[in-house]
Design goal:
This protein is α+β, with helices and mostly antiparallel strands. Helices cover 38% and strands 22% of the residues. The protein is built from 17 helices and 20 strands. The radius of gyration is 33 Å and the shape is elongated. The termini are far apart. It comes from Pseudoalteromonas prydzensis. InterPro entries: Bact_Sigma-Reg, CheY-like_superfamily, HATPase_C_sf, HATPase_dom, PPM-type-like_dom_sf, PPM-type_phosphatase-like_dom, Sig_transdc_resp-reg_receiver. Keywords: Hydrolase, Phosphoprotein.
Length: 552
């Protein structure tokens, strides 16, 4: 422990210094408050022994400034004084004093008090370090959730483009939704909707939404039949998901005229065709097993076809609706659901969910609640043009020094700036991933020189992030440079991220070496970018990202 003795009497300083050094304490000495504050700014002090009456700056003023400027970790202040009146003692406590030692000094009492406050100081230091580590892990988790949520929102955002046809509600039981509602329009104008419910809820359930949505939108854009879409989604999920996971789903196609429907029904509760008053005109029961269970050659492709008109609505819901329970453990059930649909003319999803919530009467939501009211009206033609790409070249450059690297995470702000350029907003998700992975690689493995192999050890992740935090706190004379160039002639984005680190440990340029030296996330870059290259030193990455013409 490092003790700072502050007293204007050299004899007192010498006496305390000798007594404390005999107990193996490190001791620094100051003759007034100004000197004491200077030492505290330059050295790590654990306990302050502070005289009250001193020239230039007395103990009262000094104690107040110490508590103000060194408050991250508890720093004990023990006043050394010959004053024994009550008002002086009260003032010492008011300005931040933690204890007293009266002159002349008693070695036994001094030693006991130093030991007692040493324990408090050590505990405070340990707590502070743990809090910093917890804060870092919390921020990392929040960042990961932010990335995942950003990707999900961009992948599943089409529902809001067809408000005349679709009124929907999705409310997850946890942060991430295990239900998904996908909507897309084919080149010939038909409107497709897929409501899916993955096993369980939360992030584990939500991960299946990404491959399913990719297949759905790709095949809708090609104008494929509902049966083909269902078969392909089933094949992908059967290959990717573990055996205990699957996706109950209903997939429908409404013709562009709004007069006919084709539906594939696999595992969700009954769907209903209702009129404007909510009367059930037809019940559509599930005919197939959920997606992701059967092999391709076992899959059943049969559809249901029926005619509709503009007065009709299709109702799709996941089992979270009918399986909602109240305080008496009663289910909301199918009958209440049907009654709710008929409770008012042109009932909305908000009306239905309000009834479900009222029935639960404050009971905790156990499952994701998802509902789609699909109006069978003609679909407006596709918009003929999207936001055009800017015809002006655009350059962006950012240089971060050590202080800025410690205090900021620039990726989101950079993405916000870049996506203001005409046409680039549609590529926000890819741009975010490219910059995020490349910047984190430059920081962790370039500037900080961390080795990902640490994570392979037992408790390796904890050791890795503790080392990262400690190394980042000591960082000096470091730079990370981010350059971006937009070329309208080739519809390309060029990114360069350079760091002041030592680069690759070896000159092996294979993909395996890149993954080993720069982290597993770099494989994502090669999947998204047209080209990824590194300089000879290994401390600079260049990426070329091609902007594909938007669908028209």
């Amino acid at each position: 422990m490092h003790v700072l003795v502050v007293d204007d009497q050299p004899l007192n300083c010498t006496l305390l210094k000798v007594m404390l050094e005999q107990q193996n304490y490190q001791v620094s000495v100051a003759s007034n408050g100004v000197e004491a504050l200077a030492i505290l700014d330059q050295q790590s002090i654990d306990i302050v022994l502070l005289d009250v009456i001193m020239p230039i700056m007395d103990g009262y003023e000094t104690a107040a400034k110490i508590k103000l400027h060194h408050n991250e970790v508890h720093l004990p202040i023990i006043f050394i004084t010959s004053l024994d009146d009550q008002s002086s003692i009260e003032r010492c406590l008011e300005v931040g004093g933690d204890d007293f030692i009266h002159k002349p000094f008693d070695k036994v009492i001094l030693t006991a008090k130093i030991k007692a406050h040493s324990r408090t100081r050590k505990l405070s230091l340990k707590t502070h370090e743990q809090n910093k580590l917890l804060e870092y892990h919390y921020n990392q988790t929040e960042r990961e959730h932010e990335i995942v949520e950003h990707i999900f929102n961009n992948a599943l955002e089409n529902q809001h483009q067809f408000t005349d046809n679709i009124d929907f509600h999705l409310s997850p039981a946890s942060m991430f939704n295990g239900d998904m509602c996908l909507v897309g329009q084919s080149p010939i104008g038909s409107l497709y909707c897929m409501l899916g419910d993955f096993t369980g809820h939360g992030l584990a359930a939500a991960v299946g939404a990404m491959p399913a949505s990719k297949v759905f939108y790709t095949m809708v854009n090609k104008g494929m039949a509902v049966s083909d879409i269902a078969a392909e989604v089933n094949a992908v999920l059967a290959q990717l998901l573990p055996g205990h996971m699957f996706c109950a789903a209903t997939i429908i196609e409404l013709s562009s005229s709004g007069k006919s429907v084709s539906a594939w029904l696999g595992g969700l509760p009954d769907a209903y065709l209702i009129d404007q008053q909510g009367k059930v005109l037809r019940t559509l029961e599930s005919q197939h097993m959920a997606l992701g269970i059967l092999e391709r050659d076992e899959f059943e492709r049969e559809l249901v076809h029926f005619e509709v008109d503009k007065s009709m609505r299709l109702v799709l819901a996941t089992d979270g609706i009918i399986e909602t329970t109240n305080a008496q453990d009663e289910f909301f059930g199918e009958q209440r659901f049907i009654q709710t649909l008929a409770s008012k003319r042109k009932v909305t999803s908000h009306d239905v969910i309000s009834q479900v919530t009222q029935f639960a009467h404050g009971s905790e939501q156990q499952d994701d609640l998802s509902l789609v009211l699909f109006n069978c009206v003609a679909i407006p033609p596709l918009a003929e043009e999207q936001e055009p790409y800017s015809k002006l070249p655009f350059n962006f450059s950012l240089t971060l020094n050590s202080r800025q690297i410690k205090q900021t995470d620039p990726v989101l702000e950079i993405v916000e700036v870049i996506t203001q350029v005409g046409g680039l907003k549609a590529h926000r998700s890819d741009i975010f991933l490219l910059l995020s992975e490349a910047y984190n690689n430059a920081l962790d493995h370039g500037v900080l020189g961390l080795d990902s192999e640490i994570k392979n050890k037992e408790d390796g992740f904890i050791e890795y992030y503790q080392l990262r935090e400690a190394t980042l706190a000591k960082l000096v004379d470091a730079l990370i440079i981010v350059d971006m160039r937009y070329c309208p002639d080739t519809l390309s984005l060029y990114f360069t991220i350079c760091d002041s680190g030592n680069g690759f440990a070896s000159m092996d340029s294979t993909a395996n070496s890149n993954n080993r030296e720069h982290g597993r996330g770099l494989s994502i870059l090669e999947e998204i970018a047209e080209q990824v290259t590194y300089n000879a030193s290994g401390n600079q990455i260049e990426m070329c990202y091609k902007l594909q013409p938007q669908q028209s």
